[in-house]
Structure formats: C-alpha cells, structure tokens
Design brief:
The structure is a single chain. This protein has 98 residues and is mostly helical. The chain is built from 3 helices and no strands. The protein starts with 17 loop residues before the first helix and ends in an 18-residue tail after the last helix.
C-alpha cells in the first residue's frame, strides 16, 4: 500500500493555475518547435510537407530541451513569486578521515 505524503505550502500563498499552465505551454511549444526545426534541417532546403518535417524531426532532443526550458521557467516563477520555503538540505555524507 502506498502512503501519501503531506505537502505543506507556505501560508498566505495564493494557488494560481498559471503556475502549472505556463510551464506546460513552454514544454509543448519548445518541443514542437524543436521537432519542426530539426526535421526541416534534416530534410534540407526546399519545400516539404508538414508530415515529412515532423517525421524527420529529432523528438528526443526536442523533448529534452522542452523539459529543461519548462523546469527553468517553473523555477523562475517560483522564485519570482517567493513561493518556496527555506528548508535546510541535509545530505547523507560521511566525514572523511585519513
């Protein structure tokens, strides 16, 4: 059985749909634009049908760039709205001795 963890939020921070919508739009836009750009570059100059361009596009790298852009936008939005809480990070490290 999976237990759900409680997610605490900062008090008096409004919940905005744009905080979810904007990164998703960035992900979709960068991914589709990347597939189009890599597909057009793979086919070379000339006129090509849209299905051929998207068929030749590099979806993996486009998705990676889209994911990176969406994460950066989400982090910037979080910082800009001061939504994050300052929680100290404890890393499980051992003290090295000689």
């Amino acid at each position: 059985m999976v237990e759900e963890a409680e997610i605490t939020t900062k008090p008096n921070v409004p919940i905005r749909a744009m905080n979810a919508i904007v990164p998703m739009l960035i992900l979709a836009g960068i991914t589709l634009g990347g597939i189009y750009a890599t597909g057009g570059a793979a086919l070379g100059p000339g006129t090509h049908e849209l299905k051929d361009i998207f068929g030749e596009g590099d979806s993996f790298s486009s998705m990676m760039w889209g994911s990176l852009a969406a994460c950066v936008v989400a982090m910037l939005m979080t910082q800009n709205q001061r939504m994050g809480s300052r929680v100290p990070v404890q890393l499980p490290c051992r003290k090295l001795t000689r």
